[in-house]
Design brief:
alpha+beta; 7 strands; 3 helices
């Protein structure tokens, strides 16, 4: 009887070690996959719903908006801009997807310009859209992920997560084999 008990103990130890390893790696795999998705989704998902993403330049609205936050814009009809709306104007930085935010003071459709609260006016052509939302940190990281290096890093993180999940599957099969062997010898 003690020989049987020793055999069970010998089988339980590798099984328990593999179960612990499997649990830790499963958590790590899910975390890596979720991180990769969270960095990609804030930029990939909005265009599906008709929103455009830009990096925030200067915020002239007085709201607390950090430089580099991602701004979600919705294009609306020229006559739909109302007093108090926050609009995004193409930033003076050429060649970048950066916008500056302003409050609308009045909208004169006959002159094809929007008067801004800072006293200036801007043509409709410069207005990229109505600001719907901003994401400070995650959005900024998401924009970084669409550079060449960012794309590579995101793919590596996602692939590492998937690779770990496949390794976890292999460990699970090994555990099942050990448990079946244990049941057959018992």
């Amino acid at each position: 009887m003690s020989k049987n008990m020793n055999n069970n103990t010998n089988y339980d130890q590798p099984v328990n070690e593999k179960k612990g390893k499997r649990t830790g790696l499963t958590i790590l795999g899910y975390v890596l996959v979720i991180v990769a998705l969270l960095t990609v989704l804030p930029v990939v998902l909005p265009p599906i719903f008709g929103y455009h993403t830009y990096l925030s330049g200067t915020d002239h609205t007085g709201n607390i908006s950090k430089y580099g936050s991602v701004v979600y814009l919705k294009e609306i009809d020229e006559s739909s801009y109302k007093d108090g709306n926050i609009v995004a104007i193409e930033s003076a930085k050429s060649g970048s997807r950066t916008v500056d935010e302003y409050y609308v003071d009045s909208n004169d459709t006959s002159s094809k310009e929007i008067a801004l609260r800072d006293g200036s006016s801007v043509s409709y052509d410069s207005v990229k859209g109505h600001v719907v939302a901003k994401t400070p940190f995650i959005g900024y990281l998401s924009q970084l992920c669409f550079s060449v290096a960012g794309i590579i890093v995101t793919i590596v993180i996602f692939a590492a997560g998937l690779g770990i999940m496949m390794y976890v599957n292999k460990i699970s099969k090994e555990i099942n084999t050990l448990v079946k062997e244990q049941e057959q010898t018992a």
